[in-house]
Amino acid sequence: MESRGTDLEHRAADAVESNGAVAGTESPQEGRRTFLKGTGLAAMTAMMGMAIPFGRYMPEGYRPVGLAHAQEPDMVVMNDKDGLTLLNDRPINAETPAHLLDDAVTPASRLFVRNNGAVPFHALDMDASSWTLTVDGEVDTPLELSLDDLRNDFEVVTRNLVLECGGNGRAFFQPGASGNQWTTGAVGCPEWTGVRLRDVLNAAGVQPSAVYTGHFGNDPHLSGDPDRLPLSRGIPIAKALEEDALIAFGMNGSDIPAVHGFPLRLVVPGYPGSASQKWLTRIWVRDQVHDGPKMGGYSYRLPAYPVAPGTEVPEEDMVIMETMPVKSLITNPMTGAQVAADGFDIRGHAWADGEVAGMETSIDFGQTWQRAELDAPVNRYAWQHFRASIAVPLPGYYEVWARATDGEGRTQPVTTPGWNPRGYGNNMVHRIAVIAA
Amino acid sequence: MVGLMRFFSAACIVVLGTLILPPLSMAQNPMLTAPSPSPMLSPAMPNPMLPDPMAPNPMMPGVTDPSSDVPLNPEFGNLPDTPGVEDTYFLCSACHSVQTFAQQSLTDERWDYLWDWMISDQGMPDYGEEARETILAYLKTHFSAER
Question: Are strands A396-406 and A337-339 parallel, antiparallel or unpaired?
Fold first, then answer.
């Protein structure tokens, strides 16, 4: 890759000059600050290939409209959120405290927010006119589908499907793993309306050469470079042809909110949320494993062998993360609650790739476990509700632990499982504190 | 509480300092990498990691040391005010907020990798060796798993 250093120096000097930095009349400190700001501006300028008039008057953090998107206005999408913990405002990432995930179906106001890039303008404007979904590649008949085509030409289904970020739980790894420091709240289970991915792929006619899907959306890259994608992942074709994944155009009976992918997105349950492309414009059926941004390197990959915490694993030894591990969450009471010493109830949800077979709780730090009552899911890949009546021997402080076991007999670890460089796959048990009085 | 966390961190540094490649010849004790500050330790010593000492959260991870004495500079996104803060703030905020890196606690090797990755994969301009050294030193000081 060619070095941009020298070119950038020239452009930085030009940009600083044309952006009105006045050399010689500022103190060295101010001059340096101006240069740095100019360099940052110069980087943006270089991206855009043009000078930014009046750049020196831009407020800190302001992004000019000439870029693919003005990023600070993204935060308007958070106005509809209720009680989320903001991890980052650029790109916007926010998780939901456990006690705010108590609803059987996660409302939009409580669904976590995960972005690799900025929110596209069309979504902020809720403008879906002329939206097209392209399906091409290793298919008999490439398709160009409008939203009406999807609604009219395919069976429309409604499913409660869990969406979980691959990095949910990352914050607990030591040493730290790079990425958003999600604790337990990058998960939700809204009700999705759409058509089956499988039905659309079959309408195009998947050829024997098909190996993987590649998903594309139109969210802008943070750098402002219109040729860069923030995220483009895919799934094995066999997974894509299962009945569960949806091309969704509705959430909880309404349009999908702007930040969650208006007007169209994938929902691929059982896989990391990054496989569920938002603002979906294209599905490319490929004859090889997809290699879009954040398919390779360390993104959504785990070491091929177990490593000690802190090990830098060679890239070639990282394998793609597919199914998410079994997990659960106590959503009531809130941690720290005061409860009745003669007995109290807890409840929550559990989910897995496939069905959760059993749910247990412990009030003695995992020394003994008691069976909890577990409901069947309303449909495949919906989370399952559980509840338990807890008895404590004495008034005092307790931790209530909850662990789910999947259909293969795998349960949740009580501490962080295998460390990996990017902190994926942490399905350790959820613990809340209660004071029984 | 903080003292205990510092002990655990120091123990981790000792352990990690002997770690080059698996398998390990030096003893590594996974019991020393217990992540969460125990709410049991909070009543006597208020823990700023817990938003309300009376509402303990065993899941609250102790990733960053909140009781550091380093002043924060509001001009630079409330980053710790030590040499390198200005470069870090301006150059790194071109694309993403300071929170993107301020929430991290990484090894030196991972910080090095991320700088190169941002240039090769994310369109960051190559600001050159001096900027790289200054900014990485800053990040490795304040957002480190090793110190």
Answer: unpaired
Chains A, B: CB contacts within 8 A come to: 156
| Together in a domain, A347 and A268 | no
Nearest to A308 among B28, B52, B124 (CB): B28
Element (H, E) at B14: helix B2-17
Q: Model pTM?
A: 0.80
Question: Which of chain B's residues have a Cβ under 8 Å away from the Cβ of A28?
Answer: none
A16 shares its domain with A113:
no
Q: Which residue has the tokens 């000097």?
A: A13
Helix H or strand E encompassing A151:
helix A147-153
- Cβ–Cβ below 8 Å for B122 and A222: yes
Name A9's Cβ contacts closer than 8 Å, sequence gap at least 6: none
Peptide bond into B23 cis (omega under 30): yes
Query: Does A333 lie in the same domain as A301?
Result: no
Lowest mean pLDDT among A274-288, A341-355, B66-80: B66-80
Q: What is the residue whose two structure tokens read 């990432």? A: A93
Q: Which residues of A touch B26 (CB under 8 A)?
A: none
A286 and A349 both lie in a single domain: no
Binary contact (A36, B60; C-beta < 8 A): no
Residue-wise pLDDT tens for chain B (147 aa)?
A: 555 555 444 444 444 433 333 333 334 455 544 333 333 333 333 222 333 434 467 777 643 444 467 888 888 888 999 999 999 999 999 899 988 999 899 999 999 999 999 999 999 999 999 999 999 999 999 999 988
Mean pLDDT over A369-375 rounds to 98
Instruction: Give the 3-state secondary structure of residue A47.
Output: helix
Residues of A in contact with B58 (CB under 8 A): 335, 399, 431-433
Q: If you ran DSSP here, which 8-state letter would residue A326 be given?
A: P
